[in-house]
Structures are given as C-alpha cells and as structure tokens.
C-alpha cells in the first residue's frame, strides 16, 4: 500500500499514467464504432453467405472486451485524477459500481450470446423478449448511474474546468436517453465524444504534472 502511494506521488509516474489513460481514451473513441461496424458486417455475412440470422460471436465481441478493459482502467485513473487534482471523493463508490457494471454487462452479454448461439434455432419471439429484457435492465441501470455521476460531477463546476463540465453534461444527456430505453440507441452516439473528452482531461492532467 505504501509502495503504491509512493509511486503515485512520483511526478514522472503520474505523468506517464495520465498520458497512457489519455491515449487509451482516444483509442476507445475508435474502438467503439469499429466494433459496432464489424458486428454489423458479421451479421450481414452470416445472413448472405451462410443463411444464418441468429446471434453471432466474432471479432466485434473481442473488440468490445478490449473496450471494456480500457474503460475499467480509465475509470480507475479518473478516480485517481479527482483525488489528486480536486481532493474529490464523492464519486469513489459510484465509480466502483460503474466498473462492476461494465464487467458484469460484458460477461452477461457474452453469456447471453453464447446461450442463444448454442440453442439456435430458437423461437425468434422468445429470443427477442430475452434480449430486450436484458438490454432494458442494462440501459436503465446504466442511465441511473450516468445521471447520478453527472449530478455529482457538476459539483466541480466551480473549479472552472470546462472539460469536466463537458463530461457532466454528456453524462446527464446519456443517462436521460438511457433511462427512456426507447431513445437509448441515441446515447451510443455520445460514447466516442465522451471518450475523446476523457482523453483531453487526462492530457491536461499530464501537462499539469509536467508544469508542477
């Protein structure tokens, strides 16, 4: 524990980790639409070439696993940044919940896909009901997390950090879209933008460390 504290206290180490977090955030802005695009291609190829219209498991799922891994690291680093720069701890528990949610959602998505893949062909109605139920619970819970996250983040508005404010506004908009379920697909458009903002936040933090 002491070793970790000392490591974080070293300017060079903090600078490198913020820099890494920044680049990972930018890469997430590319990974997310890329994974979706490949997923669509998987479905099209399956339907056109193999006459298969069921769930698919392929490269897109691997990219989403990487995206989830990156997002967990980004959340951990963002919590560290809030501690170091603003002595702000109100998001500690919520960030932990968000990390657990990301991991469980990824595991649940893969498990559901695997289950449907093994029992296919199955009743399309039953598959649709199961899938919609899973996604509805997931999006509503994520929406609640995003809204509370944004509300707490707005408390830092007095610090004058426009990037932090932008994250709060994006989180609030995404959360509202997600809890409606019907409008939740629109929230996906905000993911790459949010990732880029996170990247800029970390790059600015890196510059602050260098300046100090």
Report on the structure:
- This protein is mainly α.
- It has eight helices and no strands.
- Helix 2 packs antiparallel against helix 3, helix 5 packs antiparallel against helix 6 and helix 6 runs antiparallel to helix 8.
- The longest helix is centred in the N-terminal third of the chain and has 39 residues.
- It is elongated and about 55 Å long.
- The N terminus is likely disordered.
The major pleated sheet works out as: none
The value of Rg in angstroms is: 19 Å
Spans where pLDDT lies below 50 across 5 or more residues:
1-10
The rounded distance between the terminal residues' Cα atoms is 25 Å
> What level of helicity do the residues show?
over 70%
Descriptive tags:
212 residues; mainly alpha; 8 helices; 0% strand; disordered N terminus
Please summarize what this structure is.
The chain has helices at 2-9, 11-49, 59-86, 92-119, 124-153, 162-179, 184-187, 190-211.
Helix and strand arrangement:
Elements: H1 2-9, H2 11-49, H3 59-86, H4 92-119, H5 124-153, H6 162-179, H7 184-187, H8 190-211
Helix pairs in contact: 2-3, 2-8, 3-4, 4-5, 5-6, 6-8
């Amino acid at each position: 524990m002491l070793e970790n504290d000392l490591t974080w206290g070293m300017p060079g180490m903090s600078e490198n980790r913020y820099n890494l977090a920044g680049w990972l955030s930018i890469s997430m802005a590319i990974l997310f639409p890329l994974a979706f695009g490949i997923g669509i291609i998987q479905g099209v190829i399956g339907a056109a070439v193999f006459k298969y219209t069921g769930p698919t498991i392929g490269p897109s799922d691997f990219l989403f696993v990487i995206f989830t891994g990156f997002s967990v690291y980004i959340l951990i680093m963002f919590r560290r940044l809030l501690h170091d720069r603003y002595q702000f701890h109100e998001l500690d528990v919520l960030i932990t919940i968000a990390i657990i949610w990301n991991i469980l959602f990824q595991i649940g998505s893969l498990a559901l896909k695997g289950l449907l893949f093994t029992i296919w062909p199955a009743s399309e109605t039953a598959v649709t009901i199961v899938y919609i139920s899973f996604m509805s619970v997931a999006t509503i819970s994520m929406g609640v997390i995003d809204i509370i996250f944004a509300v707490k983040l707005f408390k830092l508005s007095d610090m004058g950090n426009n990037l932090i404010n932008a994250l709060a506004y994006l989180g609030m908009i995404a959360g509202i879209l997600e809890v409606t379920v019907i409008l939740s697909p629109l929230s996906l458009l905000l993911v790459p933008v949010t990732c880029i903002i996170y990247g800029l936040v970390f790059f600015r933090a890196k510059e602050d460390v260098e300046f100090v």
